[in-house]
Automatic annotation (TrEMBL), chain A:
This is L-lactate dehydrogenase complex protein LldG. SUPFAM superfamilies: NagB/RpiA/CoA transferase-like (SSF100950). The lineage of its organism: Bacteria, Pseudomonadati, Thermodesulfobacteriota, Desulfobulbia, Desulfobulbales. Residues 8-177 form the LUD domain. InterPro entries: FTHF_cligase-like_sf, LUD_dom, NagB/RpiA_transferase-like.
UniProtKB/TrEMBL annotation, chain B:
The keyword 4Fe-4S applies. PANTHER family: LACTATE UTILIZATION PROTEIN B. The lineage of its organism: Bacteria, Pseudomonadati, Thermodesulfobacteriota, Desulfobulbia, Desulfobulbales. InterPro entries: 4Fe4S_Fe-S-bd, 4Fe4S_Fe_S_CS, Cys_rich_dom, FTHF_cligase-like_sf, Helical_ferredxn, LUD_dom, LutB/LldF, NagB/RpiA_transferase-like. This is Iron-sulfur cluster-binding protein. Gene3D superfamilies: Alpha-helical ferredoxin, NagB/RpiA/CoA transferase-like. Keywords: 4Fe-4S, Electron transport, Iron, Iron-sulfur, Metal-binding, Repeat, Transport. It comes from the Bacteria. Residues 298-319, 348-376 form the 4Fe-4S ferredoxin-type domain. GO terms for molecular function: 4 iron, 4 sulfur cluster binding; metal ion binding; oxidoreductase activity. GO terms for biological process: lactate metabolic process. Pfam families: CCG, Fer4_8, LUD_dom.
């Protein structure tokens, strides 16, 4: 990985909080990965990047059950959600998704598993480095919904025992692929 | 009196439930390790000072920032309502629900909604508010209130949860945590879909964007904010921050300090009315004062509003670990809870709580907003005392006796004779007499059942001093010795040891006879008047002495001279300059020996004195930042140090706390310390505080009289004797 010095730190930190991190060659491999690691209805929101890379078709061609209707009617527990992200932060192993479009939110909160595609180019050194893009995203009067996601949903509310998969996805799979995006403001 | 009795009873009940206390101890130990790892490579002190500065700026500019927040939030489509109290806030939501015909509110965690007794208020209005945070849901089903800010159901066990959830879903459940979490996942998912309104709190409100932030782990807040078509944000006004960057700085501290996570699973930034089910979401932001403006206006207590609600002050608190959050707290618990209860619920509601703090400063040491919680609590205790009194015993002791130096000292002398019928030779025989049982049975349980009480020395240090021969020909320094009551009347041998050590290092010691008690027992009981009076006596005595340094072997006395005298005399013309001058040259003995005299290097060739373990006194480590020095001195004196578990956890003494206000809590905290010491398997435990010596000698006397408790300077003097 010539173009990002923060990649190995990002992968290490994401794994430490329970994310599955895999480096893949291309989106076709990602589609195979999703087929192998999940089942059931899969929410794939139409966003700038997913349209650009024709992600829904790539996934469907590999056999993923890409959901076609209104995401709110995909059931209480869809099998999976597949999204891109705007950028990532190496020091905490976090992916950041501008989720103003409701389908991005539904694809990342309801499913049992969340697969997120990350280009090494958009991994920032740390949370402090995110101040610039975060400030820019929030400039102006447009409503915005930005989600930091760090590992799967978790709780320790019963006897302080760490338990994965409380209300959000039980699994977070981070698929690292080069050449997806170098734009922090695109998802 | 009724409250007083039920409060005492609640302590008793909590202490009789060792299962809870054990769980909180395990949690506290695990927390310390996780927290330390989370800050690895970072400068916690610099980070917390930065956050404190941001929060102070918010306090000063709060009106301007609030206006900026409202303007930006409204520009993004939000409807903002400012509620002066929690009732107004509840009423706003009820009216909104009525207007929309809403029957169900899916709710994620919001502490201010606890303050508002939100769920009850909704129920009265015919609206069901369903908690979706796992811990909050458990507590709601049990009809209780949270006992911890971050982990609301930390006081409950999986068997109880299985029973509650079983009733809710109508089947018998295995008390297996994974199963129980899955039940909540399944059951609560329906609530998000069915709810008419989603309600969340806010960890921060960003003025220059009009957006809010949620720092969570479970993912329920995201669902509450996404699925229902109306989002209500229930937040207190002190959550304001100027910019996105400030919010990022807060998120670097909050999870690390709350749970030892680098970041929570989710940090959610929501600004304005985002799309919802093909339409635009309706978002209402209810900003609640609820007593915060009054707290901002209190100079002595305003720092409390820097709080970011991480709960760390509970996690490390020995009192919390002993009795739990239902006893040591109200809506908010532990140290910050004492302060917020006083302001949000009234001083009357907080009066027992202010006294329940043992003053160990462990909360202050871990606070991510750099709040001196102990000092604010002391201030509130003063208010409680002036409003409700401090009790007859303390009144006579402080006001009538201690202020009068002559009377105080002759009474102590008389006591050394009068105690004769109850003292016994100590079990080891090589030390002086102790009190093993008091003749009054009703006092025995609190006083001598689990510890020996020290006897008053035959001859106080002040009476011994004139006969001590010092042979320092050309002294490098002349120091004034502030002996403190503990060493003066109970352990004068600590004072004589100090002189021996100082003389060996070419330092001459003078003892101003006009010195008196430092006044901390009175101040900590809220008796400022006596405190100020004693401060003046001591300032006068030591100013007259014209010495290079003032040295004490008691860290609480050291703190009194360094900090409290200066603060108490700040508005007393003619005194404040003198107090400041003394403060500058006052040091704890270990710090002086090591940092000024370089004692460990000078003594450096002693060896073979055996193993000791070291107990860090609260006020030495967290009040004076001295903890390396005594270890270096003991090492140089030939003692090998085996560290005990949690060496800087309070010994349970807390002055009058262990005798008058909360002996039963002290007993438990002391028990933990005794266990930690016994687990090291050494014959000696060293410490630098006569208060800790009273507590630990007393408790060891009952638990294992073969383990000796000694002051560091005593051990140093013995090593010098052997040389």
């Amino acid at each position: 990985m010539p173009n990002n010095t923060h990649l190995s730190r990002f992968m290490e930190m994401a794994r430490r909080v329970g994310a599955e991190v895999t480096q893949l060659e291309n989106l076709q491999d990602a589609a195979k990965y999703v087929v192998t690691n999940s089942s059931g209805t899969t929410l794939v929101p139409r966003t700038a990047l997913s349209e650009k890379h024709d992600l829904r078709t790539v996934l469907a061609d590999a056999g993923v059950d890409v959901y076609d209707g209104d995401f709110r009617k995909a059931g209480h527990f869809p099998g999976a959600g597949v999204t891109f992200c705007n950028f990532a932060m190496a020091d905490t192993g976090t992916v950041v998704l501008e989720s103003t479009a409701e389908d991005v939110r539904l694809s990342t909160t309801l499913p049992e598993k969340h697969f997120v595609l990350v280009d090494p180019e958009i991994i920032l050194e740390d949370n402090l480095a995110a101040a610039v893009p975060m400030t820019k995203i929030h400039t102006g009067n447009e409503p915005k919904f930005v989600a930091y996601v760090t590992g799967p949903s978790r709780t320790a509310d019963i006897e302080r025992v760490l338990t994965i998969g409380c209300h959000g996805p039980r699994e977070l799979h981070i698929l690292v692929i080069e050449g997806l995006s170098s734009d922090l403001y695109e998802i | 009196m009724a409250t007083d009795q039920s409060y005492k009873k609640s302590i008793e009940t909590a202490i009789n439930n060792p299962k809870l206390s054990k769980a909180l101890h395990l949690f506290g130990d695990a927390y310390l390790i996780a927290r330390e790892n989370a800050y690895s490579g970072l400068n916690f002190d610099a980070m917390r000072q930065e956050l404190a500065a941001i929060k102070d700026d918010v306090r000063i500019r709060r009106k301007e920032l609030l206006a900026e927040f409202i303007k930006n939030a409204e520009a993004a489509g939000s409807i903002v309502f400012v509620a002066k109290d929690v009732k107004e806030a509840n009423d706003y939501v009820i009216k909104l629900a009525e207007k929309k015909g809403a029957k169900l509110i899916a709710k994620s965690k919001s502490m201010v909604s606890e303050e508002a007794h939100f769920n009850k208020a909704m129920e009265k209005a015919g609206i069901r508010a369903s908690e979706t945070d796992l811990g909050e849901w458990i507590v709601q089903l049990a009809g209780q209130r949270p006992s911890h800010m971050v982990m609301p159901a930390i006081h409950m066990f999986k068997e109880e949860v299985a029973e509650l959830f079983g009733k809710e879903v109508g089947k018998t459940l295995n008390p297996e945590i994974k199963t129980l979490v899955d039940v909540a996942r399944e059951r609560l998912r329906q609530e998000y879909f069915n709810a008419d309104i989603g309600l969340t709190g806010a960890n921060f409100l960003i003025a220059n964007t009009g957006g809010i932030g949620l720092v969570t782990n479970e993912g329920n807040a995201r669902l509450c904010a996404t699925l229902p078509d109306t989002h209500v944000v229930f937040a207190a006004i002190h959550k304001l921050l100027p910019t996105v960057e400030d919010a990022i700085k807060l998120t670097r501290l909050l999870p690390r300090n709350a749970t030892g996570q680098l970041l929570t699973s989710y940090v959610t930034w929501i600004k304005g009315t985002v799309p919802c089910d093909g339409k635009t979401k309706e978002q209402h932001i209810v900003l609640i004062d609820g007593g915060r403006e009054a707290l901002y206006e209190s100079k002595a207590c305003q720092d409390a509003l820097r709080c970011i609600q991480c709960g760390a002050c509970a996690n490390v608190c020995p009192v919390y670990q002993t009795v739990g959050g239902h006893v040591f707290g109200s809506i908010y618990i532990s140290a910050i809870g004492i302060i917020l209860t006083a302001f949000y619920e009234g001083l009357d509601k907080a009066k027992e709580l202010t006294r329940a703090c043992i003053g160990c400063r462990s909360c202050t040491a871990v606070c991510p907003s750099n709040i001196d919680l102990e000092e604010i609590i002391l201030h509130l205790r003063t208010q409680v005392t002036s409003e409700y009194g401090m009790g007859v015993i303390k009144n006579v002791a402080f006001k009538a006796v201690m202020k009068n130096r002559g009377l105080f000292h002759s009474m102590v002398k008389a006591a050394s004779k009068l105690q004769r019928p109850v003292t016994h030779p100590s079990r080891t025989g090589d030390e002086k007499r102790v009190i093993r049982h008091l003749p009054m049975h009703f006092m025995d349980r609190d006083f001598t059942q689990w510890r020996d009480l020290p006897s008053v020395a035959e001859t106080s240090f002040r009476d011994q001093f004139p006969n001590i021969r010092q042979s320092v020909s050309d002294p490098k320094y002349t120091v004034g010795f502030f002996v403190g009551c503990g060493a003066d009347f109970v352990y004068p041998e600590v004072g004589t040891s100090l002189i021996k050590v100082l003389n060996a290092l070419n330092v001459d010691v003078v003892f101003p006879q006009k010195q008196n008690c430092c006044g901390i027992p009175a101040l900590y009981s809220g008796d400022t008047e006596t405190g100020v009076y004693l401060a003046k006596q001591n300032v006068e005595a030591f100013t007259e002495a014209k010495v290079d340094y003032i040295i004490s072997i008691c860290p609480t006395c050291t703190m009194a001279i360094k900090r409290d005298f200066v603060e108490r005399l700040a508005d007393h013309p003619g005194w404040s300059a003198k107090a400041l001058a003394l403060s500058d040259k006052t040091m704890d003995a270990s710090a002086f020996l090591e940092n000024v005299l370089g004692a460990s290097e000078k003594l450096g060739n002693l060896s073979g004195n055996g193993s000791v373990t070291y107990h860090d006194s609260c006020h030495l480590k967290r009040g004076n930042n001295v903890f390396k020095e005594p270890r270096a001195l003991l090492g140089a004196s030939g003692y090998e140090i085996s560290e005990m578990k949690n060496s800087d956890r309070c010994c349970g003494f807390g002055g009058t706390y262990s005798f008058l206000s909360h002996p039963q809590i002290s007993k438990q905290i002391t028990h933990d310390k005794v266990e930690a010491i016994q687990n090291v398997n050494v014959k000696t435990v060293a410490m630098d505080c006569p208060g800790c010596m009273i507590m630990l000698k007393g408790a060891m006397g009952k638990a294992n009289p073969n383990i000796r408790c000694a002051h560091t300077v005593e051990l140093m003097a013995e090593a010098l004797d052997k040389k």
